[in-house]
Amino acid sequence: MLDLKLIRQDEARVRRGLERRGAGAAELDRILALDAEWRALVAELDALRAERNRVSQEIGRIKREGGDASAQLAAMSDVAERIRSLEAREKELQDEIEALLLRLPNLPDDDVPDGPDDSANVEVRRWGEPARFPFQPKAHWDLGPALGLLDFERAGKITGSRFTVFFDRGARLLRALVAFMLDYHTARGFTEVLPPFLVNSASMTGTGQLPKFGGDAFRVDGHDLWLVPTAEVPVTNLHRDEILAADELPIYYCAYTPCFRSEAGAAGRDTRGLIRQHQFDKVELVKFVRPEDSARELETLTAHAAGVLEALGLPYRVVALSTGDLGFASAHTYDLEVWMPSYGRYVEISSCSNFRDFQARRANIRYRPEPGAKPQYVHTLNGSGLAVGRTFAALLENYQREDGSVRLPEVLAPYLGGQLEFAPRT
RNA sequence: GGAGGGGUACCGUAAUCGGCAACGGAACGGUCUUGAAAACCGUCGCCCGCAAGGGCUUGCGGGUUCGAGUCCCGCCCCCUCCGCCA
């Protein structure tokens, strides 16, 4: 959520930021008009309340002294009626302003490249060399079933399309990747969290999924509960409505959760394999930091997530998202894209974002810069570290051999009982 | 799911019959002090306002009333017990 004070005081800056994202300026004009009306109303209302408070005390005093307060009571009856009517209007205005503010996206950082969509994204750097296969490499949706690791057909039977059954050593490999990633992060200062996989609407609003993107998530029938679309939601909301002490910051969390998304697949893209599923697994990194540190923290967060790919020996590149490709709540995002032989290109495997105070304001997450000082909003960041299903796919594809077998990197040996070889069933 | 008890500021606790949300502690600022402690004063949630000042805030949302922490209705969470359950 944008700061209403900022909108008032620096309308030009807000308008410029929204225009860079192609977001409507119409809402901005509407907010400014409603806010002007609201402030005038509040002044009038507060004056009436002041009078009511004053006379009500007087009535109390008169009654205690056994006097007759009927004149005051009659006058205050009218004032009370007037206050009731103004309060109703004030609530309307406030609700409407709030509703508009909640639908306004974050402002992009100055150094975010401008552009209409992902075509304007800018490659920042590359790591590793995509393997040149002396044979036609197979896709993971062919390798996985052939190796007895993945079963897409039975998942379709028991649930539907865009779900997967991990089987036998495939299930073990998925569990191994989750454990490997969590160990990697906790060894580097992140605190492991295992949150609920269902969250309430307040949490979904706090991180920005609601009110605009409810259709992208699964809701539990008959309850105010949603299946988490990402661990970002429960983990960021851990500190909703809290005032953190300055010496608690920065806070670094990592969390494994399954992620549930109903929108995946609507566009008919990536219909095969693990790339776009209604349920997938992810290890997420979440940071709460001082405002002055968030830009630097985004760089280290991105480098940290990239470290997982490097440990696994998977070639990747870092891409700075353009204003047109930026997520709703983000001010600045780097995507990590892993080399995927079946696609013949780099495919997103992590998205690292700085939300600045956008989520903190929605979720009311503050800290005291100094003991005794006024509370301020923290900055929140998060990034995938990594999407586990896509990592699974990238490993199979990048480490495949001509006979359809796969040998995974040594770093996974402790998590796989030393069994790094995967051979096709005959 | 049922019964009972609770939710008040950073923490702990009051508030009679409905009448300015009191007190203690912590933290921070100040006075005092060579320095510190103690003591005393102030600050310590949010909003409007250039300011003076005013308003809001007792888990959340409604209602009654001139006036609600207090009375009424709905909901959420915590504790105890019962039921159910991996």
What does this structure look like?
By secondary structure, the chain is an alpha+beta fold. The protein has two domains: about 5-100, Orthogonal Bundle (Helix Hairpins); about 120-420, BirA Bifunctional Protein, domain 2. It has twelve helices and 17 strands. An eight-stranded mixed beta sheet has the order 1-10-11-12-15-9-8-4. It is elongated and about 100 Å long. The N and C termini lie far apart (about 55 Å). The structure holds one RNA strand of 86 nucleotides.
- Major β-sheet strand ordering: 1-10-11-12-15-9-8-4
CATH architecture of the largest domain, please? 2-Layer Sandwich
Total domain modules: 2
Overall geometry: elongated
| Total of helices | 12
The residue fraction in helices comes out at 25-40%
Structural class: alpha+beta
Tell me about the biggest sheet? 8 strands, mixed
Strand content: 15-25%
Spell out the helices and strands N to C.
Answer: HHHHEHEHEHEEHEHEEEHEEEHEEEHEE
Q: Using only CA atoms, what is the Rg?
A: 27 Å
Task: Please tally the β strands and state the result.
Answer: 17
Provide the fold topology.
Blueprint: H1 4-9, H2 11-20, H3 26-64, H4 70-102, E1 122-127, H5 140-146, E2 150-151, H6 152-158, E3 165-166, H7 169-186, E4 191-193, E5 198-199, H8 201-207, E6 226-227, H9 232-236, E7 242-245, E8 251-260, E9 279-289, H10 294-311, E10 316-320, E11 332-340, E12 345-356, H11 358-363, E13 365-368, E14 376-377, E15 379-387, H12 388-398, E16 406-407, E17 421-422
Parallel strand pairs: 4-8, 7-13
Antiparallel strand pairs: 1-10, 2-3, 5-6, 8-9, 9-15, 10-11, 11-12, 12-15, 13-14, 16-17
Helix pairs in contact: 3-4, 5-12, 7-12
The structure holds one RNA strand of 86 nucleotides.
